[in-house]
Amino acid sequence: MAKPQQILHLLLGLLILIGAAPSISDAATSSPYKKSKSQSKAEASSRGGSSAVFPLSGDVYPSGMYYVTMNIGNPAKPYYLDVDTGSDLTWLQCDAPCVSCSKVPHPLYRPTKQKLVPCSDPICSALRQCETLQCDYEVQYADQGSSLGVLVSDAFNLRLANSSTVRPTLAFGCGYDQQLLNPNAPALTDGVLGLGGGKVSIMSQLKDQGVTRNVVGHCLGRNGGGFLFFGDDLVPYSKVSWAPMSRTHKYYSPGPASLYFGGKSLGIKQMDVVFDSGSSYTYFTSQPYQALVSAVKSDIGNTPLKEASDPSLPLCWKGQKPFKSISDAKKYFKSVVLSFVNGKKPNLEIPPENYLVVTKYGNACLGILNGSEVGLKDFSIIGDITLQDLMVVYDNENGQIGWIKTACNRLPKS
């Protein structure tokens, strides 16, 4: 399945995808998410709830994911969770006892019997049909990986933007049997933070408990890092490009789009796309992928670049000397644009730095991959590489997805 530094947790009915970084962009130096304190307080009090902001770690390349530290339990203990808007269920590898777990950054979460979510709980019904006393789950991934476990509930320690701390009790998966691609390799994270729109999602649970509104967003730094936020206090609504969420998907989709390269149409219309922070790279289905690759190869035919073999990614080019950063390579490439057809027909411009990776071998590689090779037939996936240095907002309250260019290398001020 997936080659280069990518773990593709392709959501099958319940699940997800995972996900590399060049140099920081100096184009966006303003902070569009800033609001006055009086404005933020007035808006928060009128809606109820507040927002929370979390720093992110990781990158697209070579880490292959962005992750957040969540403090769970009483007393609270830290766990690294892969930020995934492509799935609903949050889960940790745990000692229940553990049948098969990989080496994780922190000691395995240890549940008590009192933490088990009963089969009769409505949140279990939203997850699966339950016929036993406890709420068991199993998630299957496209890379043949899986996690088997039981649903538990425990306190999540969240520091809100209004300086208060809340400790809501939230349900999540305690995974005691993981079948992974590289079970002996140390894992970067302790589990997955599921941020989809379903009932078992952390965001839906926080909304139900009146902690925050069901709005989640991320800003993935091109040099790594960035931030994640719950709630909408930081969202500059009037400046964001918005598209209505597609009703034909259980994933976050702004609906169909037309595909352009270098300002020219590639003849691809009604291209169905999904935004997924759990995927390192972007995956186009076969037809748009082939159209894009043909256009890119044709366009750089008269440049000094030559195709090169690189174990990192399938399609790479070398220059007259090894590239040191994206800024060295991007001048040879043009922007890709997705023009969405719904709502106000917003465009998502994808500059070369949001689809290229400069590998440790000094080659420039295409970070848009052939989705048909990993089982994608019906929709394309916009992954982390394309979402770098964008604030992306998944507004479940108003049924819309938005984005705005910004620098993600510093935390916003509420």
From TrEMBL:
Short name of any one Pfam family annotated for the protein: TAXi_N
Active site: 84, 276
PROSITE patterns: ASP_PROTEASE, PEPTIDASE_A1
Keywords, in A-Z order: Aspartyl protease, Hydrolase, Protease, Repeat, Signal
Keyword match Protease: yes
Stored InterPro entries: Aspartic_peptidase_A1, Aspartic_peptidase_AS, PEPTIDASE_A1, Peptidase_aspartic_dom_sf, TAXi_C, TAXi_N
Region Disordered, annotated ranges: 27-50
Signal peptide region: 1-27
GO biological process, one term: proteolysis
Residue ranges constituting the Peptidase A1 domain according to the UniProt record: 66-404
A single GO molecular function term of this UniProt record: aspartic-type endopeptidase activity
Entry similarity comment: Belongs to the peptidase A1 family.
Protein name, as recorded: Aspartic proteinase Asp1
Organism whose genome encodes this protein: Carex littledalei
